[in-house]
Amino acid sequence: MTLFLPAGIISDNVSDLAEKVAELRAYFEQGDMIRLKESLRDLEEIILETAVFLETLSCQPLIYTGKGSTDEVIKRLEWALTLAEKNSATDIIQQSQERKKKGTK
Question: What is the pTM of this model?
């Protein structure tokens, strides 16, 4: 199980918002105030759900702009986290210092 969530869920919400805005525009142009009000409530609900979702995350969503598919990047991140958990920060610093000493001799 991964702790990484593809940002598709956020993208879906943005698509839903764009769709609702198009509906609102159509209802406004038609003068259909009942459907306009209903769609405004729907829009508010989508925005609130998205805000609540984002607030539940322990950190801000990240966007990776490098090479690789979503699955490939998630696998690399999981590997890096596993490696980091095995080596504490002090171990990494100590290993780095030892490598530097060996390289200068």
Answer: 0.63
Contact present, 28 and 36 (Cβ < 8 Å): yes
Span 28-49, pLDDT tens digits: 999 999 999 999 999 999 999 9
DSSP3 helix / strand / coil % (the chain, rounded to 5)? 75, 0, 25
Whether the CB-CB separation of 96 and 24 falls below 8 Å is answered with no
Query: What CA–CA distance (Å, rounded) separates 37 from 30?
Result: 13
Question: Measuring CA to CA, which residue among 21, 7, 17, 20 is closest to residue 54?
Answer: 7
Q: Is 68 left (phi over 0), alpha (psi -120 to 50) or beta?
A: left
For the cut 80, the answer to whether the pLDDT of residue 103 exceeds it is no
